[in-house]
Amino acid sequence: MSKTGYEPTERTVPSRSRDRISYDQDLVHSILDEAYVCHLGFVRGGKPIVLPTLYGRIGERLYVHASTGSGQARSADPGLEVCLTVTHVDGLVLARSAFHHSLNYRSVVVLGTAHRVTDPEELHDALNALVDQVVPGRSQDSRPANAKELAATAVLRLDLTEVSAKVRTGGPNDDPADLGLPHWTGVVPLSTVYGSPIPAETLAPDVALPDYLTAL
Amino acid sequence: MSKTGYEPTERTVPSRSRDRISYDQDLVHSILDEAYVCHLGFVRGGKPIVLPTLYGRIGERLYVHASTGSGQARSADPGLEVCLTVTHVDGLVLARSAFHHSLNYRSVVVLGTAHRVTDPEELHDALNALVDQVVPGRSQDSRPANAKELAATAVLRLDLTEVSAKVRTGGPNDDPADLGLPHWTGVVPLSTVYGSPIPAETLAPDVALPDYLTAL
What we know:
The structure is a homodimer.
Chain A: E1 21-22, H1 25-34, E2 37-44, E3 47-58, E4 61-67, H2 71-75, E5 80-94, E6 102-116, H3 120-134, H4 147-152, E7 153-159, E8 162-168, E9 186-194, E10 198-199, H5 211-214
Antiparallel strand pairs in A: 1-8, 2-3, 2-5, 3-4, 4-7, 5-6, 5-9, 6-7, 6-8
């Protein structure tokens, strides 16, 4: 891996749409940091399983949440082959032809072997990263995990080595022969917005909304 | 499968959080119909691959888009074992303890064997469903695929038989011992919003925005 990008591998060079692929480190990080769930794929009994999963990033390491009782955690003791994918849908692309309909999106695919985190200090940092993925800074404004909770939580680590990003932006790619067709064509942008925070019923009235939430 | 729900199987009964699982057909359909991409998992060389993929639904059949040149399409000729997962993130759940941080979400996991669609009529309907997943009704307001495009498009079919939904709603589940802690606690709702449609540069000025887009 260079300072600015990931080395392409046989598995991260796509067979098509090569103009949309990127190995840029900053782009990969930004896509990963903006999402709340990844889709974690692994193989069980020879068949694929894909589950939405909480995760967090520290530098070139991703940390994925699992329960100690789950199949992923048990399988990860010797190392679990995974594919971790994160996708943002940024727009609906309406072409004049059905064939050229598409989405604008940004996605990251991370391939590799996930290992269970056992070092207490790394586990502590990883759990903070998982909380900070939900709201940056939140780990410093909540009670840290106690011994019982640590024992009930498995965290898997996946290093960012075999990584690619894929991005589609812009308008529809209509065929020249279709330009005269009467159908509306263009892009409908999509974005994620935050609603007003809803305090828990048990929240004492003197606890103010923290700055990191008003900033959202 | 009953009229209202899917039969649980060994693979769709979770080892934990059983209170969040559902096999309700209407719930599954609503989660599937609201999303724009699924995350499609399959096994290649013994290892998992998860790719964001366009899809559409007709009744109890899902149709997944693939290129004829892609590995998925080639593998699907005899039948490809897949896991198709769709997730909506509805809120950030901030508990007083790091451990109880979570997300509100709705997800569907579909397991099964995907087969390449070869029947011309089914392929036609499936392509319409893929376009209508982007914008309902749009397939009737665009040029249908021609022979060359049909030859370049592979569609895989996955029947809704081994299916489960998982839903988390509501506020944080703080431990009673934590209720006196000074941290703000509650939920930050998330939603997806549509921006103003951006016409393609090539759009003739006399083409009005169609009703199905103003309705968004």
